[in-house]
Specification:
Layout: H1 2-13, H2 15-18, H3 43-57, E1 62-64, E2 75-79, E3 87-93, E4 114-121, H4 131-150, E5 159-161, E6 177-182, E7 194-195, E8 202-211, H5 213-221, H6 224-230, H7 233-236
Parallel strand pairs: 4-8
Antiparallel strand pairs: 1-2, 2-3, 3-4, 5-6, 6-8, 7-8
Helix pairs in contact: 5-6
Length: about 250
């Protein structure tokens, strides 16, 4: 499958990075009580990233604007389903305003800014505030803020615990964690980092791929590549399926 080839290709490009990537254990609900400054895009940067999202993922009119923002202003761009791609594409817009704390030895290989993406079925109720419907958006916003709360960084192959007690994120699925994989655009292309200025400011785009507890444990005890090899091609494409097979068992 094309997406699996994308994973293999990206793995080759980032071989030096995966030697030091690690599990991120800070849970979904945990937040810092310390006040921090706001990290915001300039208006010019917002225009540029909006155009790039439309170019890479598809035209959009809907944006879920964040009402209260204590650190970053994390809006959610909603790209509607099309006949060719009958699913929603949700893309954060604001996470990349924060410069992540990437280790010095990796700065030449890893971008220190990122936005995050999820694909949802076309019948997903985006207007509902029930946790069974809202958890993918909560996941996007939480992953986007995790580098701020932990003073750390996120990148390809990193995993995140989404609940403090390892319980499922909602009543309609057993997912409780996630990993970051390459994001794929509207034409099946790997979405490359966006250069925002003349001084090396680049924003990467990562797809959030939900995991079961058993899959998380398998990845930690073996490797990211071995977990991906276990997953069938149909389930590897990052369209969220709340009832997909658990490949960690």
């Amino acid at each position: 499958m094309k997406y699996k080839r994308v994973l293999i290709y990206t793995a080759f490009l980032t071989a030096v990075v995966i030697l030091v990537t690690a599990q991120t254990t800070k849970p979904m609900e945990e937040k810092s009580n310390e006040k921090c400054p706001q990290f915001l895009y300039t208006e010019k940067e917002i225009d540029k990233i909006s155009e790039y999202i439309a170019q890479q993922y598809g035209e959009f009119e809907m944006v879920g604007h964040e009402v209260v923002s204590s650190d970053i202003h994390c809006d959610i761009v909603i790209v509607p389903p099309t006949q060719k791609q009958p699913y929603y594409k949700l893309v954060t817009m604001g996470a990349g305003a924060y410069k992540m704390n990437v280790p010095k030895e990796l700065k030449s290989d890893v971008n220190d800014r990122a936005e995050y993406v999820v694909f949802l079925p076309k019948d997903w109720n985006l207007e509902s505030d029930k946790e069974e419907d809202y958890w993918p958006i909560r996941m996007l916003k939480t992953v986007a803020r995790l580098p701020i709360w932990s003073d750390d960084w996120l990148g390809y192959r990193h995993t995140v615990n989404l609940t403090e007690d390892r319980s499922p994120v909602a009543g309609n699925t057993e997912f409780n964690s996630c990993t970051l994989v390459p994001s794929v655009g509207k034409d099946g292309q790997l979405v490359k980092p966006l250069k925002l200025g003349f001084f090396g400011k680049k924003v990467s785009f990562f797809q959030i791929y939900p995991l079961y507890q058993e899959e998380l444990e398998f990845k930690m005890n073996h490797s990211f590549d071995e977990l991906m090899d276990r997953i069938d091609d149909d389930d590897l494409f990052p369209l969220i399926n709340i009832r997909r097979k658990n490949y960690g068992k």
